[in-house]
Amino acid sequence: MLVYHLPKTLTRHCIRFFTHPSRLPSQFHHIPTGTNHLIQSLCQQGNLKQALYLLTEEPYPNLQTFELLIHSCSIKNSSFDARTVHNHVIHKGFDQNPFLATKLIGMYFELGLVDSACQVFDRICKRNVFVWNAFFKGLVKVGYGDEVLCMYRRMNLDGGGSDSFTYTYVLKGCVAEESEESFVEGLGKVKEIHCHILRHGYWGNVHVMTTLVDVYAKFGCVVFAGFVFYGMQVKNVVSWSAMIACCAKNGRPFEAVELFREMIVEIHGLVPNSVTMVSVIQACTALCAVEIGRLLHGYVLRKGLNSILPVVNALLSMYARCGDLHIGRRVFDQMERRDVVSWNSMISSYGINGLGKKAIEVFEEMLFSGIHPNPVSFVSVLGACSHGGLLQEGKILFESMERDHGVYPTVKHYACLVDLLGRANRLDEAAKVIENMQIEPGPTVWGSLLGSCRIHCNVKLAESASRRLFQLEPENFGNYSLMAEIYAQAEMWDEVKRIKNLIEARGIQKLAGCSWIEVKRRIYSFISADELSPKNEVVLALLVKLLTEIKKMGYVPHTKVVLFDTSEKGRESILLAHSEKLALAFGLMNTNRGETIRITKNLRLCEDCHSVTKFISKFLDREILVRDVNRIHLFKDGVCSCGDYW
Ligand code: ZN
Ligand code: ZN
Description:
Helix content is 65%, strand content 4%. It has helices at 8-19, 35-44, 48-55, 63-76, 79-91, 98-110, 114-123, 129-141, 145-158, 164-174, 183-199, 206-218, 222-231, 237-249, 253-266, 274-287, 290-302, 309-321, 325-334, 340-352, 356-368, 375-388, 391-405, 411-423, 427-435, 442-456, 459-472, 477-489, 493-506, 537-552, 568-576, 579-590, 607-619, and strands at 514-519, 522-527, 597-601, 624-627, 632-636, 639-640. Residues 578, 580, 606, 608-609 line the site of one zinc ion.
């Protein structure tokens, strides 16, 4: 065995040196000078080599000595020393000791030596719950999610008892990154564990139930997460944060902000932490609620959370994506430390504002500062090229991905490339790219092609793309409506009817258009309705008045975007009830001149709403910002920042 050898005299000198009261931390003053204690204090001081040397001289090392040695091996990240200590544990007859087994298992997982951890686990004849938990924790850590549930079942067969930690690890195993299971199988496992938790009486455990909320959130099951959350008798900040994050990340930003309000103001008076802040700021970003966002920024500064990187990243993104690009940039410039997420946020923010050149500039700055781009960086910069119409630059960047940066293109990157070519009316080239793809294109890429076909009204190519999409995503209403829109543009009414019949025959649910607007720090939501609701009467009256005025200025309703009504009058009234128009009229009624109106929409802004907003911005001399799924539109003096190209 290779041990670090010191000359005997030097060793003695060292022992005296290290055990001299002035050299030891206060808790080690007055310790007896037994070798066990000496080894322990050497471990505390980070001198693992010498501690190991002394271990060979100690005939009766105790549990605490081994515990500290094992801990030191993890800290020093030394696999060789780890095995040495393990050998000593076995030779001294401690290999059946459950306490040391948990420590050894933890150490081996920490060092990434999964096989060795398994060996320790297998050697133990009588495993208690701590040994099992250490093993589960390790498996989750290395991403062996699939194994966790198998082992959990084995544990139950062995008759081992579980505790609250067992359930949190097993739940985390269901969402561990390396898990290759399908969504349905994964969710099934979570439900199985949920049943076990209830059966074993852990429904009152905050820790377990919060993890359950978190895991359901990761599967996008907001309803189940809410069911667990509202059923909890005791909730702490972490539980609230988990539920707020669940809403923010699953397309329920409105609910996320309301929950936050409930958490700190209305009912519970809890103090949010950085995780809560990140989620609620992200929700404000989704809602374009920059006024609430500013309040949150103030809160972050007051609570000293502004040194936490994810919080600052969320703030930067909030400003930049809600139209306050220059403030977003200021936050970015003032950051003491930036990670790849900060850079990606800045790049994509320039992108959705249509500033492709700026986005590329920031991307290059990032490379210059030594940050390695990740796959998201390329999605951001390619998307920016697409919105900025920078065809050549985008193509060069795509080619450089794998060659210069070792980032392999995924479907998302191909979708960006197809979009880039498509927008530039290089549809044939885009189709060729899809043909030559090394990976399965999937709905993202075909959807991108179909979107481009709509811009340039290419029926033939659109048909081939939609055929694939109808197979791949038979339930997605958006694809059918996009294809119908393309037929309507080409005035192929029989085909429009065919698509309409297809939708009815397949029983596909239409995704309702929804828009949000923030007025005096409250968020209001509007849903597009096929029929005019009396609830919106005042808003509609204003809209009708405005439409009459702008018609005099040359506005013509784009009734072609309405697919399912034959009479012209009926189509116009459907257009009138589009959620973004309702939100706009509501905003006009409740804000002062000079204030920018900010609206977000869950779908793509339709041609008619785009045109109406342009006219109204001129007629009322107002600045109106609308963010749809694609980008930011800033309407001013009758023109839109997107150049009618989105
Ligand atoms: Zn519309
Ligand atoms: Zn626009």
